[in-house]
Design brief:
Elements lengths: L2 H7 L3 H5 L16 E4 L11 H9 L4 E2 H8 L3 H13 L3 E4 L10 H12 L2
Antiparallel strand pairs: 1-2, 1-3
Helix pairs in contact: 4-5
Length: 118
């Protein structure tokens, strides 16, 4: 049985994994938020299997949505787990601020002019 099947067979599982919490302690976690494990810091001794897997996966930089896919868990649930690991100093967040920056007006006008010339 895969992890995904195991999750679907136990509807109470997400509630148990987050200790009853439905929201992360941080409101900055978006699906595209980049996560990185802190070098040389193993998962906490009290960590769940999913948290240990999460720290292991984040030894390389991964987005929150990618981690959720690897763990076969909902993004909202993984956000709660990530939030706990960030609060305990085991993960760091690297937001992609460039994704929220709009291009300059002159660049948009050049693109629009180019499209009109096609």
């Amino acid at each position: 049985m895969s992890q995904g099947d195991e999750y679907r067979d136990h509807p109470v599982r997400s509630y148990v994994l987050t200790s009853g919490r439905a929201h992360p302690t941080r409101n900055t976690l978006r699906p595209e938020t980049l996560l990185v494990a802190v070098d040389g810091r193993p998962a906490p001794t009290t960590a769940t299997r999913q948290q240990r897997d999460l720290v292991r996966l984040c030894r390389g930089t991964l987005a929150l949505a990618e981690v959720a896919a690897y763990l076969a868990l909902p993004v909202s649930l993984v956000a709660v787990l990530v939030s706990d690991l960030v609060d305990s100093g085991h993960l760091t967040i690297r937001s992609n601020h460039q994704a929220h920056v709009l291009p300059e007006r002159d660049i948009l006008e050049k693109v629009l002019d180019g499209l009109r010339n096609i």
